[in-house]
Amino acid sequence: MEKTISVEAYLQKHDKWRKALETLRDVLRKTELQETVKWGLPTYTVNGKNVVGFAAFKEHIALWFHNGALLRDEHSVLVNAQEGKTKALRQWRFTSETEIEKDKVRRYVEEAIANQKQGKEIKPEKKELVIPQELLRKLQEDRSFHEKFEALAPYKQREYAGYIEEAKRETTRYARLEKIIPLILEGKGLHDQYR
């Protein structure tokens, strides 16, 4: 997967939605937000904190508010794209450039900026690390592997544990374990290639 390194490169990759994305970008660039690329997507920050970003999909584009659940949403345009997974993130979807009302978008963005500057945010819940049996056995058998696993950040440990745990078949669980062993020994996280 090719990593996007600039907003211009992202726009070029999404020619179908380019005009609509440029309209959103124009609104965002007229604020105090700093433009950057995170997770391969255009992202806008204030004081180093994520406020909003945008993305193109097959049937729509979306403006992502990182703490969108705190917005008043007086026009009822925000949706939780991953119900049950995300608490704070909300998106505003557009299926054409003509749906984008710049003044309305700007008001939502300004409120999101104000919330961030006031320190309002929904913090993710800390997830407890539950180590699946297959991984636990490997940790108990191999001291070097255990030390490398313990040296990983807690979120990386949870990613690996979840990766094995979500496999339904035992053979898949062991195949996943074999796949992650070299990554752990190198001190890498499961998703480091995408960060």
From TrEMBL:
<protein>
    <recommendedName>
        <fullName>YdhG-like domain-containing protein</fullName>
    </recommendedName>
</protein>
<dbReference type="InterPro" id="IPR014922">
    <property type="entry name" value="YdhG-like"/>
</dbReference>
<dbReference type="InterPro" id="IPR016786">
    <property type="entry name" value="YdeI_bac"/>
</dbReference>
<dbReference type="Pfam" id="PF13376">
    <property type="entry name" value="OmdA"/>
</dbReference>
<feature type="domain" description="YdhG-like">
    <location>
        <begin position="17"/>
        <end position="113"/>
    </location>
</feature>
<dbReference type="Pfam" id="PF08818">
    <property type="entry name" value="DUF1801"/>
</dbReference>
